Amino acid sequence: MAVRNMQLQTALLPQRDLLTADQRFSTAPSCRFFTSKTSLRRSLSAAPRLCRAVLSTPSLKDESKHQNKEYEDDGRVFNFAAGPATLPASVLKQAQEELYNWRGSGMSIMEMSHRGKEFTSIIQNAEASLRSLLKIPDDYAVLFLQGGATTQFASVPLNLCKPEDTADYIVSGSWSDKAFKEGQKYCTAKVVWSGKSNKYTDLPQPGELSLTPGARFLHICANETIHGVEFKDYPSPGGDTLLVADMSSNFCSKPVDVSKFALIYAGAQKNIGPSGVTIVIVRKDLLGNSQKITPVMLDYKIHADNNSLYNTPPCFGIYVCGLVFSDLLEKGGLRAAEQRNIEKAKLLYDAIDASNGFFKCPVKKEVRSLMNVPFTMETPDLEAAFLKEAAAGGMVQLKGHRSVGGIRASIYNAMPKAGVEKLVALMKSFQERHAS
Amino acid sequence: MAVRNMQLQTALLPQRDLLTADQRFSTAPSCRFFTSKTSLRRSLSAAPRLCRAVLSTPSLKDESKHQNKEYEDDGRVFNFAAGPATLPASVLKQAQEELYNWRGSGMSIMEMSHRGKEFTSIIQNAEASLRSLLKIPDDYAVLFLQGGATTQFASVPLNLCKPEDTADYIVSGSWSDKAFKEGQKYCTAKVVWSGKSNKYTDLPQPGELSLTPGARFLHICANETIHGVEFKDYPSPGGDTLLVADMSSNFCSKPVDVSKFALIYAGAQKNIGPSGVTIVIVRKDLLGNSQKITPVMLDYKIHADNNSLYNTPPCFGIYVCGLVFSDLLEKGGLRAAEQRNIEKAKLLYDAIDASNGFFKCPVKKEVRSLMNVPFTMETPDLEAAFLKEAAAGGMVQLKGHRSVGGIRASIYNAMPKAGVEKLVALMKSFQERHAS
What we know:
Chains A, B: One of its GO terms (biological process) is L-serine biosynthetic process. Chains A, B: Pathway: Amino-acid biosynthesis; L-serine biosynthesis; L-serine from 3-phospho-D-glycerate: step 2/3. Chains A, B: It catalyses: O-phospho-L-serine + 2-oxoglutarate = 3-phosphooxypyruvate + L-glutamate; 4-(phosphooxy)-L-threonine + 2-oxoglutarate = (R)-3-hydroxy-2-oxo-4-phosphooxybutanoate + L-glutamate. 2 copies of one chain form a homodimer. Chain A has 436 residues and is α/β, with parallel strands linked by helices. Chain A folds into 3 domains: 2-57, no CATH class; 104-330, Type I PLP-dependent aspartate aminotransferase-like (Major domain) (Aspartate Aminotransferase, domain 2), CATH 3.40.640.10; 333-434, Alpha-Beta Complex (Aspartate Aminotransferase, domain 1). In chain A, 38% of the residues lie in helices and 13% in strands. Chain A is built from 14 helices and 13 strands. In chain A, the strands form 4 sheets. The first copy, chain A, has a 7-stranded mixed sheet. Mean pLDDT of chain A is 87; it is low at 1-61. Chains A and B meet through helix 6, helix 8 and helix 11 of A and helix 6, helix 8 and helix 11 of B.
């Protein structure tokens, strides 16, 4: 924590991510002995004044190479899984260090009463960090729940709708389709746009949508993990219709204007923590109107009234989420995260687009996801050979979802740029060897 | 794991827990240099043949003192929390060691795809260990779910009942009362016995129960965490009425004849792991009849058909549960666990009963819980002074539940005997100083 606090004080690391390449390399060289960002950080904490210029020196010019080496020295693979997904190495190390005895409490976080002062501080800090990251207005409740986004497919209509209400769904992939199907149980759920006929490679244009007048809410999936389509702008349903978004797979990957939404929900296991935690951000004035058949654990008001402690929450998972939130804040918040994600995604999409069709991404360019990059090759055999080579090179979980096949590289917040560069290098080398 | 496997091979440690004191101390002394059970175990793994007699030597005569010292040297407190609760130190250390890079996979378990071979082996091993511990018949499904027992309060009637069915509830404390109230939403829930008028200090005698003919199920809470009453024998509802039990707070604390039950459920955070995992053991022939309004995530058949992988499960929590199950097996299974629990509980109840009313346990002797021991003192001031002294001595979370006050010592599987002995020693000393 001392290191982390010091980093916050120097406030240098976050800013660096916003610098252009030119700015980064414009300062006089010094401290060339630092071999990686991590060791640099450790040293910064010891001598912050001395090293203020370090982060912009040529010694870090090839930062990715260092990241790469650091990963490999540490026995880490580059994990492109769609979720549960890679987490920041520094967060994992802190969680490891604190697992047996959390900050001198004599207990693991897994053993602590959820009503004790230790865990109270953990969940409150996690909420405060998330509020800070997303600039969540005070009239929104933040809930730490269980059950994944799939549970929210039921909770949303149960809490927001009367059974006779209509709710509109944009079906842009497998997840929004599941949300729609579950919604049918609890209201008149209507599909107002579907990407199915185009194999979920596109999203609706603003003018294309014909919403139901008086619909209670419009539901979207902000990023379809399986198909790799992501909303860049969000539809405005207008009138009293509420906008609801499943942001599971792009949550905290970029800034979001929360005030445009009535409700945002997200499973943690993509960008912010381990599986078993689900975040719900909901306008407080919407609470207290759940249907009578709502299980108590799916009633948002119960959880809001009890600060997510109505029953025992998934304490260890919430703790890890809190560490990730702190880490994101230290790295410059969501604007900086977005810039890193744009940079990484560009590397990968550029490689695909420059391959003369050797690699193909089926998704329309305007709606390509920054998080999940699906692509295909000419034959399943080629894809299998590619996956094998990737795994041999320490790049794992690149197989596309079993429902669509192909390759999928999930490059969430915590995927280092070096991982994407290594993947791109393999793609180029593979193409050279296999292109006919 | 090498150590653990070696322990299994020698099969000595489990048996020791079943030895009488005489048997334990009857062997010729040797290996006096071992200062704790843990270091002994480590050494055993290196030289199992040499040390076969060690576990019965006088060097371990005062094992509790060693446990105590070991705890204190390690910075651990004795944590009497009702849940989340203390876990085996060895399990925590293993989880810590493996957190950053699970067994050479290059990933944390928190980062692994739940459909990858690594996690598949983890969840399958956890289920196999639990089946072995509880001797679960093959015609029962074992589900690893989310949401705590409170979610099951809804899931049970939603899966087992039609809306017009009657379900009987024995209300023996706060938890079964909550289960009953939630049940009212989904069937005709009836209280067939209530301990409320006696402040939940008793349980029904077999003859006392007047069940509803044709009731779909009879629901019991096997152990009431707040009030400290525990079923020693289970009622047999007879006819086609199913027996359903919430075993959250005594799950895996003793053997249970699973075949007597249609369904058993338990939150993990008492005896078997961190919060965020809920185990359901359900007869397979009962699946597939859920009410239409059942959220997909509350439908047992969905989870059974998908081996608990319909959506992303709480992977890290399931992993820790698996470690606890292995640990229990290595220590002789549930019969041995029960013996240890009886021994610990006897120490505490004997101290209360021998205090001439200075400490009082309100619960009827025949139904006193082996897991949660509530007791009171003459005044709240005395209780506060006692709690303060206990905390100063490294014994924490002894305050009774906010709804009932007093003291409560939760002494689950992982509470070392030394912790109970230390508590009893404080009770005696405190009484000597404060008895009028």
